[in-house]
Amino acid sequence: MDTTETTPATPILQLRDLKMHFPVREGIFNRAARFCKAVDGVTLDVQEGETLGLVGESGCGKSTLGKCVVRLNQPTSGEVIYQDTNLAPLKRKELKPFRRNLQMVFQDPVESLNARHTIGEILSEPFIIHGIGDREERKASVAKLLDRVGLPANAYDRYPFEFSGGQRQRIGLARAISLNPRVLVCDEPVSALDVSIQSQVLNLFLELQRELKLSYIFIAHNLAVVKHVSDRIAIMYLGRVVELAPADEIYTKPKHPYTRALISAIPQPEPRRKSERIVMTGDVPSPIDPPSGCPFHPRCPHATDRCKVEAPALRPAPDGASGHTVSCHYDL
Questions:
Q1: Rounded to 5 degrees, what are φ and ψ at 273?
Q2: Global pTM?
Q3: 178: Cβ–Cβ under 8 A, 6 or more apart, which residues?
Q4: How many CA within 13 A on the CB side of residue 300?
Q5: Closest by Cα among 207, 85, 229, 76 to 148
Q6: Which of 44, 142, 247, 286 is a plausible cystine mate for 230, CB 3.0–4.6 Å?
Q7: Residue 275 in contact with residue 269, Cβ under 8 Å?
Q8: Residues 204/234, Cβ–Cβ less than 8 Å
């Protein structure tokens, strides 16, 4: 009998108690009297080759979290550990070597591309910044990128406005993978596209992941899209992760009341199949003045006095699969 223990693989990316609090300046002296707690203590791991879906209502902090990962935002506190290096405290020059490995695909394919530059100039820029190749080598690399994302070679000399939304998102994806990154943060990359185009772009994401061995943080509010691409899914509410589980399990055995409400809102493809719709009452609290205790308690049908004063920690879910954790006092 083989008694050798296998050592768990070290995650390629680790977030440890990550916080992003934006100052809210008030008064005649423009002082930071309060803070908007967009991300408020998130701890997550991303394994190599994995897609971690990040789901939540608008304003829950998921896009801000993505920007902290690639250091477009300087986190207020916490750690962003890529392999063995904490990126959170690094200065701009210190970050440059790591930016090749951590890239982002933005939600709006129009705003994310410079309208005054040709596609060739846009896709050549990463190579110029990092001093890779001469002009002819960069042109050849851009031609390969265009082919890889399914765009014609003559796109090189054209401008972003000459392309459709789906094609512009392919250009954004080509720019993100130009330097062979290890981790891509995808901030709702298909939400601005027609439904008929979304599946094509999603399949391209999956194809490139297999080919380049990429790890994704896939941010979205469309639960059907996230299920299609994710290995694990994290549910965010008001800057915190309230549930984390393998993708299939979070749809079949949701534990947190917020997750259950989100799952119940997914339209059923079969009209005769009846499902209980869970309607959440009240509005999402302001991240400037979040409620005490559990952030979901003002809208939770199971809230108790304990929920109002004590914030629950992520713990293993009862009867859940390995790796299924939930932040809730209620025994689900």
A1: -80, 115
A2: 0.91
A3: 123, 126, 127, 141, 142, 145
A4: 24
A5: 207
A6: 247
A7: no
A8: no
Residue 273 pLDDT grade (very low, low, confident, very high; cuts 50, 70, 90): low
> Interior CA angle at 160 toward 155 and 164, to 5°?
85
Q: What is the Cα–Cα distance from 186 to 205, expressed in whole angstroms?
A: 10
The CA-based dihedral angle spanning residues 316, 322, 324, 325, taken in that order and rounded to the nearest 10 degrees: 30
Q: Can you read off the two tokens belonging to residue 4? A: 């050798």
Helix count (H) and strand count (E) of the chain?
10, 12
Nearest Cα residue to 55 out of 245, 321, 195: 245
| Of 47, 79, 217, 66, the residue nearest 87 (C-alpha) | 79
Counting every residue written for the chain, the total comes to 332
Share of the chain above pLDDT 70, in %: 93
Strand runs labelled E in the chain: 13-26, 31-46, 51-55, 77-82, 85-86, 102-105, 183-187, 215-220, 232-237, 240-246, 315-316, 325-326
